Amino acid sequence: MKIDIENITMIYPSGKKALSDVSFHAVSPGFIGILGPNGAGKTTLMKLLIAGLVPTKGEILLNGKPLLPQEKELKAQLGYLPQSFGLYDELKVTEFLDYMAALKGIRDKAEIQRVISCTGLEEQRKTQIRHLSGGQRQRVGIAQALLGSPQLMILDEPTVGLDPEERVRFRNIFSELAQDKIVLLSTHIIDDVQAVCSRVLIIDGGKILYDGEPSALIEQTEGKVGVYVAHDGDAVPEGCRVVSKVNVSEGVLCRIAGENLPDYAEPVRPTLEDAYLCCIHEGARA
Ligand SMILES: Nc1ncnc2c1ncn2[C@@H]1O[C@H](COP(=O)(O)OP(=O)(O)O)[C@@H](O)[C@H]1O
Ligand SMILES: [Mg+2]
Question: Which CATH class is domain 1-77+151-213?
Answer without folding.
Answer: alpha beta
